[in-house]
Design a protein that fits this description.
- It is built from 7 helices and 9 strands.
- The protein is of the alpha/beta class and about 210 residues long.
- The chain has one domain: Rossmann fold, CATH 3.40.50.450.
């Protein structure tokens, strides 16, 4: 993969934007916010733009502000009915207000080269599972990274292991994604997956849980 430096920043030509799914709350563990801020700074360092849900609350606000504060690019995509509830962030580089959730998710997909799930709630879980399903069904091959900060996603990973043991996740329907345990490992994991196709198959990932 080709890289160059501009104003001291490392630029990856194969990754322009990464979509981050995360909570509109902060959660109880301060490590979640710290991870969001670290990831935002890493995006700026690598000249990777953030695509996210457009809110200013919780982890969404943390990663967006961290990206902007370190000179990075941010695209917020939010449906009209959530602009007040999630306190839409107006000072992003590009703000897109959609008619509904379907349009929001489509645009987030189209504008992103990879997907990352930080801690979050039902919405974050739904978005993550949708991307895993699309990869499983061969609809795209963009990297998906699960940021298992302080073991947040362990119950989810255990559920996937249970599904596999009960043969609802069958051979030939692999779940290709990467699990990392720290925010600093996210960008390297995405770059590695794009460079070498190094996303771990479900057998390797789920064997750890």
């Amino acid at each position: 993969m080709s890289r160059k430096r501009v104003n001291g920043r490392r630029i990856s030509k194969s990754v322009r934007n990464i979509c981050v799914y995360c909570g509109s709350g902060l959660g109880e563990n301060p490590a979640y916010s710290a991870a969001a801020r670290t990831l935002g700074a890493q995006f700026s360092e690598h000249d990777i733009g953030l695509v996210y849900g457009g809110g200013s609350l919780g982890l969404m606000g943390e990663i967006a502000r961290a990206t902007l504060d370190t000179g990075g690019r941010v695209t917020g995509i939010i449906p009209a009915f959530l602009t007040e509830k999630e306190k839409m962030m107006r000072d992003v580089d590009e703000l897109i207000i959609t008619d509904d959730m379907h349009e929001r998710k489509r645009l987030m997909f189209e504008r992103s080269d990879a997907f990352v799930a930080l801690p979050g709630g039902i919405g974050t879980l739904e978005e993550l599972v949708e991307q895993l399903t699309w990869v499983q069904l061969g609809r795209h091959a963009k990297p998906v990274v699960v940021a298992n900060i302080e073991g947040f996603w362990n119950p989810f990973l255990s559920l996937l292991a249970h599904m596999k043991a009960d043969t609802f996740i069958r051979p030939g329907l692999d779940l290709n994604f990467t699990v990392v345990d720290g925010a600093a490992k996210i960008v390297p994991a995405v770059l590695a997956a794009l460079t070498t196709g190094a996303r771990a198959k479900d057998t390797a990932v789920l064997a750890k849980f």
